[in-house]
Design goal:
By secondary structure, the chain is an alpha+beta fold. It has two domains: 80 residues, 2-Layer Sandwich (Herpes Virus-1); 51 residues. It has a five-stranded antiparallel β-sheet with strand order 8-7-6-5-9, with no helix packed on it. It has a two-stranded antiparallel sheet with strand order 1-2. A hairpin with a 6-residue loop joins strand 1 and strand 2. The longest helix has 34 residues. It is rod-shaped and about 85 Å long. The termini are far apart.
Length: 160
């Protein structure tokens, strides 16, 4: 009995190896045999229904597999989203500049103090003067001294 079982396993393994012996003819997308064309980018064999066709600069038809086509599309989408994100950032910066005009040294300002940093009887705002400007941030001086942190324009309100 053992000899018969071993023979059956051996014959099934041999038939399995016959199925997969022709690796060069397997489609890299659907993993089925009988691929007809080759992808011009990755050089893998693919079926004609698993590829897209495009014309390159020398007017030759390119067969591009779905995997390479997806990769190509992802790169295009990333570049496009980067361009749109930079446009949006410029637009936000322009709107911020329109809303908050630049301050000059010597301008009187009001700086609001966050709730967590003040006691129940402390003032909500601190009056001060702009003493220095570097890289779009402002150093503020008060009656008591100079504030350690540099403040952005959005944190300050100009006293008119």
């Amino acid at each position: 009995k053992t000899h018969i079982i071993v023979k059956a396993i051996h014959s099934s393994l041999r038939s399995e190896s016959k199925k997969y012996c022709d690796i060069n003819n397997i489609c890299s997308v659907c993993e089925k045999s009988g691929s007809e064309v080759q992808c011009t980018i990755c050089k893998r064999n693919i079926h004609s229904d698993n590829c897209s066709y495009s014309i390159n600069n020398s007017n030759d038809i390119e067969n591009i597999c779905l995997l390479c086509n997806n990769e190509k599309q992802i790169k295009v989408n990333r570049i496009e989203s980067y361009k749109r994100q930079t446009i949006a950032a410029k637009k936000m910066a322009e709107n911020s500049e329109k809303l908050f005009k630049e301050l000059e040294v010597g301008d009187q300002i009001v700086l609001s103090v966050p709730k967590v940093d003040r006691g129940p009887l402390d003032s909500q705002n601190i009056n001060g003067l702009v003493i220095d400007i570097r890289n779009g941030v402002y150093q503020i001086g008060t009656e008591v001294g100079i504030i350690k942190n540099w403040c952005s324009r959005e944190e300050l309100q100009l006293v008119s």
